[in-house]
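Protein modeling request. Please complete all fields; requests missing the sequence field cannot be processed.
Requester role: graduate student
Desired output: 3D structure, token encoding
Chains: 1
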Amino acid sequence: MILEPMERDASHDQGRVDAVVAQGPRGAFAVAGLAVLIVLAIWVAFYVLVYLARGGD
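Delivered output (57 residues):
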């Protein structure tokens, strides 16, 4: 049996969407920033533990 959604006020839903969009893409920036930090940490660890440990010039 398929249940159809009840009719709701579309303007209320649109107001909620507008409120979310007005806050901006904070989550996307947070994930991108975390990814950059992880990559930089891996690079520094590689540099210190591998390159400098071998006496790299």
